[in-house]
Amino acid sequence: MKKKLFLSLFSLLCLHKIVAQNNLEEETKVQQLCLVWGFLKYHHPEISKGKVDVDELFLKLYNQLNLVDKQEEVNTIFLNIINSYGDISNNTNNNSSERDRLNFFENEDYNWIENLNFNKELTNKLLLIKNNYSNPKGYYASQSKLSKILNFDNEKIIEDFDFNSTPHRLLSLARFWNIINYYNVNKFLFDDDWNNVLNKFIKPFMDAKSKLDYDILKAKLVSNIDDSHAFYFPQGLYDSLFNYKPPFGTRIINDTLLISNLYNKDLSSKDSLRGGDIITHIDGKPINEYMENKFGSFFSASNKDSWNRIHQYYALYNSTDEVNVTYYSPMENKHLKKTIHLYESYDLDKQVKRSLDKGNEINTSKEVGETSLYINLEAITNKELKKISKTFDKYNGLIFDLRNYPKSIAGSDIAKYIYPERKEFIKVLFPTNIPSIGDYNADAPLKLIADPFKAGKKNNNYYKGKVILLVINSTISKAEYIGMAIQSAPNSVTIGETTAGAVMNIITIPLPDGDNVNFTGMTAYYPNGEVVQRKGLKIDHIVHQSALHPDQDLQLEKALEIINKSK
């Protein structure tokens, strides 16, 4: 009797284990939901037209999936939704001709349709949609005919968004992930496989316990697109991690942190700190290691130099009112250890405040060395450039400083003086209305009026001396675009540090909670096909500034050296 009872219990346990093994994990159901929902949103012939509230559809599907635990039940839910919007059949008026015209398919990835455990009916239905409806006039992602820039203006904000709601948080994840998946042409440049990113974030988004948890997850998610335009740091996260700050400014030079400006000299002097002191360790760790541990997963950046540019401002910001540092004092010529006091707020010194209110006075151009002309592109106008261009021939070299962000000048304004003829200086990979597919080297926007990817004109009297371009890690976006135009001049040489690697226009993603996230909407290439996105501008001479001599402009000195050798 006991033996029979034991066998019966053992059989029940085995049966329970088998049933449990057949049950889907919650993360698996959410993964399938995110993939299928995003696919239907941008591909289904009816859903993609905006006739369906896709956010409500996501929440509805989530609730339905929450009630089942078998793959067949999940398959049925997806099939019922698809079938509820009409029959899907072979579309003889599909967009194959439009697709055939396009030429960039590296971001296309639909392997999940056949690799997940969908039954044959659901798999075939999804493939039928994929192969027959490519949605060239999508409602949720539309493209300007003039600029070719995508917009997602029809995405809605959920007015009663609740960060305590698991489906609401997952909707934010699904919306962002799918927009990037289907419409970020730079996806092929990401460090991490984008499918793995989805899988990595599902459970954390499900388990978030507070708004801070949710904000941290969004920042970490955005950082995975490796884009210097995608700076996203919600105020709540900033207030939590950075509510104490030093009374001085800092910037990274090589692997050290230079104290560059004293915002409040009295507070700085309490810790015996001076401008020019060089911090080498924070809390016992080298600067790069400390920042990687603290910020590594929060900020998106195209490359390491750009990542340093972002973090140099926040390196000593903290959630507590002090931090331990090791620093070198050039004044005392020794290394010291000290606890630095941090403050929630403080008054700026009057001199600092006056300087900030007034702004820096910039010489738009000046003679440097004996036979060189320095041109600061931050403030110079086209009118001023035209005036000084009449003096170009008296100089052996022109030095264009792009270690800034130009406000009043374009690459075409400069090229007409330094090009012998009109030429292409950039190639661009555009997104298209068709999900996952790009258009490489398409006709430029407004080409018939003025092709923005060409510059210069026929000019036998173009400048024939050395053209020097100065760049650093804060050279970004429009500045990089202008830099590419200057680099196409004969005899051009680029000096400095790796630039931000985010050249083209910004596209904005509205999230369901009302926040916005930006990303670079196109991929920039040199005319020879070398990619610039993420890598930054090509540098002929890498020259870093010196922390020991921060006022010495080593990049400008290198420029003068090259010009003098070319005489």
UniProtKB/TrEMBL annotation:
GO cellular component: outer membrane-bounded periplasmic space
GO molecular function, one term: serine-type peptidase activity
InterPro entries, per the entry: ClpP/crotonase-like_dom_sf, Tail-specific_protease
GO biological process, one term: signal transduction
Any Pfam family hit: Peptidase_S41
N-terminal signal peptide: 1-20
Keyword hit for Protease: yes
Domain of life of the source: Bacteria
Tail specific protease domain residues: 345-544
Keywords attached to this entry: Hydrolase, Protease, Signal
Descriptive protein name: Periplasmic protease
